[in-house]
């Protein structure tokens, strides 16, 4: 019974004296590994490979074909894809606690402290808005109260279930998993240490670096002692209370947005512009919408130091005094929670890159060629470690394509340009391709045509807050000399991820403005606005869309 989970339902476990035991193993012949511990007690074991499973010709004597350092989305995708082609793969993943002692399981940032909990808490905020909207549709919603602990418990329960499923998935795909902190010894050797301090050394033909990064803390008094980051917010054991989000990144704005939606007093402290690198028309609209819906902004400003006036208890937030400079003037205010979202740094230095002469920049980013290969021939880097959009689906795609090139003779490379993404702020923002600023810098202002419009989502037409709908906006950026090829797609409004994901294929296939014009939209939806764009930005005409 102890080992029955390793065996198929047809297996029969025999008690008593056994001279010979025949076990059918559904494992790749390349691994020669047996997941049935009872076999270890037999002196002889003959493994007969399943002829339908892939084999891999080996030209090395290392213990593994591939070692992946980092058990996030990209690393796991690469490992499982390589194993599918018969490679013998090992994955290392170990989470060092945050300064506030937060840790988590297998799956990386996205699953544990990123995309998944962020989207769930964003949804919780949206449900609160729907309750208010429902009154105009005839629903009697008299009791609107949110419980933070219930939300955190629900989110964490889901995450832990996915942590477990990932472990099972690795086992089923014959990928060895070590919950150990790995570092490089040489180009083919990895040393790892588990939480008990026990060390292990293995060798591998190829090494894939996929450790991702962790949030930055500013070098100011009290920051890492009293403040939190996105590593901590999604499992916070107490209601955050009055909150200061420091930073203009999408992480800062997303967290500020859902906290405001949940009913908290939230302030965002910004040093300069919002959402650097994104289209600034859309970024500014997000800021205005958030201000209109209750989020406060302090800009331009920076935190100088943090003091604790009252320590936190098991169920209550602390009281923190934040000293800051706004336009050069020294000020202070009291908050319960201070969250820094001022960027992230790759964990490159933590894996001993000097041991193999691995080149990396001061910010931790690792230079790679178009095949994600570093300056060390057999070492590759993917995900947030390289200069590319820091997005989970992109890391997954990069990892899979890398594995296919290494073990399935593929030549397909990752497209880092036309990558769709969505910022889950209260006013959701989806984009593919270039911002207007990037397009102008690339092609010149005279060769760029911007088609745009405002739109009112049908679900908001009976809303009591019509002014908010003035921020819903769509934009297509086209290159005139290339038959008005669309190089930038931008959408502000509900369901941004679903809408943007659907249109993204058009940009990948080189869609032009006339292709969008030929498309018949679905009515009444926000997405149909892209099929009826008639106003260019340079015309200066009104962009308010008339209803049908």
Brief overview, please?
The protein is of the alpha/beta class and 548 residues long. The chain contains twelve helices and 21 strands.
Uncertain regions spanning at least 5 consecutive residues: 1-16, 24-47
SS field, number of helical segments? 12
Proportion of strand residues: 15-25%
What is the terminal-to-terminal distance? 67 Å
Please state the structural category. alpha/beta
Could you give the count of β-strands? 21
Shape from CA axes?
globular
Can you offer a commentary on this structure?
With 548 residues, the protein is of the alpha/beta class. It is built from twelve helices and 21 strands. The protein has helices at residues 73-84, 108-113, 115-134, 148-172, 223-226, 230-233, 250-261, 280-292, 392-407, 436-443, 496-508, 513-518; strands spanning 64-69, 89-92, 176-178, 181-186, 189-193, 199-209, 213-215, 243-246, 266-269, 296-298, 301-310, 319-326, 329-335, 337-340, 344-346, 379-381, 421-423, 429-433, 448-454, 473-479, 485-492. Strand 20 (473-479) and strand 21 (485-492) form a beta hairpin. It is globular and about 70 Å long. The termini are far apart. The model is unreliable at 1-16 and 24-47 (pLDDT under 50).
């Amino acid at each position: 019974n102890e080992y029955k989970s390793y065996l198929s339902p047809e297996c029969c476990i025999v008690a008593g004296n056994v001279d010979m035991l025949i076990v059918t193993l559904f494992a790749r012949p390349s691994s020669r590994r047996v997941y049935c511990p009872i076999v270890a007690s037999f002196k002889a074991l003959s493994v007969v490979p399943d002829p339908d499973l892939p084999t891999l010709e080996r030209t090395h004597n290392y213990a593994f074909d591939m070692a992946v350092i980092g058990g996030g989305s990209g690393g796991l995708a690469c490992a499982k894809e390589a194993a599918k082609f018969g490679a013998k793969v090992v994955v290392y993943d170990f989470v060092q606690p945050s300064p506030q002692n937060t840790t988590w399981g297998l799956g990386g940032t996205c699953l544990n402290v990123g995309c998944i909990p962020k989207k769930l808490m964003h949804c919780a905020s949206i449900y609160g808005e729907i309750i208010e909207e429902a009154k105009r549709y005839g629903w009697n919603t008299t009791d609107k109260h949110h419980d933070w602990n219930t939300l955190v418990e629900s989110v964490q329960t889901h995450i832990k279930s996915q942590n477990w499923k990932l472990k099972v998935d690795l086992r089923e795909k014959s990928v060895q998993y070590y919950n150990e902190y790995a570092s490089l010894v040489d180009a083919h050797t990895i040393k790892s240490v588990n939480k008990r301090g026990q060390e292990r050394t293995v060798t591998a033909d190829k090494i894939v670096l996929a450790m991702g990064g962790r949030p930055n803390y500013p070098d100011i008094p009290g920051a890492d002692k009293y403040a939190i980051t996105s590593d901590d917010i999604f499992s916070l054991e107490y209601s955050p209370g009055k909150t200061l989000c420091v930073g203009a990144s999408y992480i800062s704005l997303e967290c500020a947005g859902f906290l405001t939606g949940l009913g908290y007093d939230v302030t965002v402290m910004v040093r300069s512009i919002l959402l650097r690198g994104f289209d600034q028309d859309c970024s500014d609209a997000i800021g205005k919408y958030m201000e209109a819906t209750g989020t406060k902004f302090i800009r331009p400003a920076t935190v100088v130091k943090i003091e604790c006036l009252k320590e936190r208890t098991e169920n209550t937030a602390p009281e923190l005094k934040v000293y800051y400079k706004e336009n050069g003037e020294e000020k202070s205010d009291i908050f319960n929670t201070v969250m820094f979202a001022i960027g992230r740094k790759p964990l490159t230095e933590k894996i001993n890159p000097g041991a193999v002469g691995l080149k990396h920049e001061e910010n931790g980013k690792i230079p790679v060629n178009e095949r994600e290969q570093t300056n060390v021939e057999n070492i590759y880097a993917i995900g947030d470690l390289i200069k590319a959009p820091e997005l989970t689906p992109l890391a997954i795609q990069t990892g899979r394509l890398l594995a296919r090139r290494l073990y399935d003779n593929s030549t397909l490379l990752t497209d880092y340009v036309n990558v769709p993404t969505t910022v889950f702020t209260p006013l959701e923002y989806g984009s593919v391709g270039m911002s207007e600023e990037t397009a102008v810098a690339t092609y010149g202002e005279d060769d760029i045509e911007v088609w745009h419009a405002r739109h009112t989502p049908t679900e908001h037409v009976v809303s009591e807050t019509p002014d908010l709908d003035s921020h819903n906006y769509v934009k297509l950026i086209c290159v005139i000399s290339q038959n008005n090829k669309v190089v930038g797609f931008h959408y502000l409004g509900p369901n941004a991820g679903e809408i943007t994901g659907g249109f993204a294929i058009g940009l990948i296939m080189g869609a032009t403005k006339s292709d969008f014009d030929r498309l018949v939209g679905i009515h009444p939806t926000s997405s149909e606005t892209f099929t009826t764009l008639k106003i260019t930005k340079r015309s200066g005409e009104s962009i308010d869309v008339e209803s049908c």
